[in-house]
Amino acid sequence: MSIDLKHVLRTIFKELENHSIHSEISLDITRANELTIGDLSLDSLDLLQFAMDIEDKLGIEIGAVEIPPETTLQNFAVYLHELMKQTAGP
Q1: Where are the domains of the chain?
Q2: Which of 3, 73, 78, 88 has minimal CB crowding within 10 Å?
Q3: How far apart, in Å, do the first and last CA atoms of the chain sit?
Q4: Per residue in 1-33, pLDDT tens?
């Protein structure tokens, strides 16, 4: 089963609803190219929990990769999507 990038983005935004992000941030998927990990103002524990939740939902292992604060949610989704394709194999 192939999961498209839009599904990955929707999963990211759905999971963010369960975390304490900065109160002034509007979780609008159309802003995925604008919003960065740093904009979310997640502390290190919340960011770790968010990453673990994403792993569970997408069935992948992100590992010990540090996500730079300037990474957009779109770029993060692309990274996860590529990970999923690598995990799935040919």
Answers
A1: 5-88
A2: 88
A3: 12
A4: 467 999 999 999 999 998 888 888 889 999 999
